[in-house]
Amino acid sequence: MSDKSILFMHDLGPQTASFRYRAQMPAEQVSRHNGFKTALNQDGEYDIVVVSKPTRSTVPIAEQAKKDGAKIVVDFSDDHFTDEHKAKYAAMAQIADHIVVASDVMRTRIQRYLDCDATVIPDPYEQPEFAPHADGDDYLWFGHQSNFQDLVPHLWMFKDRKLRVLTGPKELPHTTVWTPENMVKMFAQSNIAVFPTRSGAEFKSANRLLNTIRAGCFPICQQHPAYMEFRPFIWVGDMNTGLKWSAAFKQDLNDCVAAAQDYIRDRYSPETLGKKWADMLEGI
């Protein structure tokens, strides 16, 4: 039994998916294992500091914690090693005692950029499980506004289809602003969620897909490494073909969603992935 104290740090608030999946939920779950004492964005002295989504302000805090004797775990769930954030990512990599990532693709990129290994801990789902209700004609796209560009080339496909768009943080015309309450409402009102992808985002996790399945909707996805695991249950391929296929086989979609729910229920639960965080932290 360990009595290690662990601080999870994330500069952004709960409106940010990575705050919830990579800091808030792990901190809650890890506290249930090994006698760990966890905190989220609180001052104090800790045995281990976990920095998720590094920022300019978290780098000096982590550096000081390292000097004070803490072990530093850095969670690189996004690939910012070649863009305007590369300096702070390089700085965090220098002081890291251990690196965590959310996908196998990101682990490969860490190996290439830093010549070291990383532990893969996927994002958990956060939505409650609802009965499948995919046999309808209401479509949904949701995501951060920075990802809205993924949808734009496909909007012509929805000229004669009802498409809801849930995004944020800003309000945009003909969209609904993202809140936890609106997310639940949009899932309940929709039958099928669409996930176009773009080149360069292969490192992303499948968290939106997982929540769609939990909510009882059927996902139609373009090719993406994180989605291939779920191909036995959902559509992964050409978007337009997927829309046509789902219309032709509408009577089968609820069964597909139910099978997907069975598959992810334990594998991607906050409890299961919290245990992976705890096991990793126990070894540091």
Description:
The chain is an alpha/beta fold. It contains 10 helices and 12 strands. The protein has helices at residues 17-30, 58-67, 86-95, 104-114, 148-151, 180-189, 207-214, 239-248, 253-267, 270-282; strands at 5-9, 37-40, 48-52, 71-75, 98-101, 119-120, 138-144, 162-168, 176-177, 192-195, 218-221, 235-236. The strands form 2 sheets. Strands 2-1-3-4-5-6 form a 6-stranded parallel β-sheet, with helices on both faces. A 6-stranded parallel β-sheet has the order 9-8-7-10-11-12, with helices on both faces. Strand 5 (98-101), helix 4 (104-114) and strand 6 form a beta-alpha-beta unit. Helix 1 crosses helix 10 (270-282) and helix 2 runs parallel beside helix 3. The longest helix is centred in the C-terminal third of the chain and has 15 residues, at 253-267. The mean pLDDT is 96.
Keywords:
globular; 18% strand; 12 strands; alpha/beta; six-stranded parallel sheet; 284 residues
Give the % helix.
Answer: 25-40%
DSSP summary, beta strand count: 12
Q: Strand pairing plus helix content: what structural class?
A: alpha/beta
Low-confidence stretches: none
Radius of gyration: 20 Å
The geometry reads as globular
Strand order of the largest sheet: 2-1-3-4-5-6
Number of helices: 10
Proportion of β residues?
Answer: 15-25%
- Compressed to H and E, one letter per element, the order equals EHEEHEHEHEEHEEHEHEEHHH
The end-to-end distance, rounded to whole angstroms, is 14 Å
Largest sheet: 6 strands, parallel
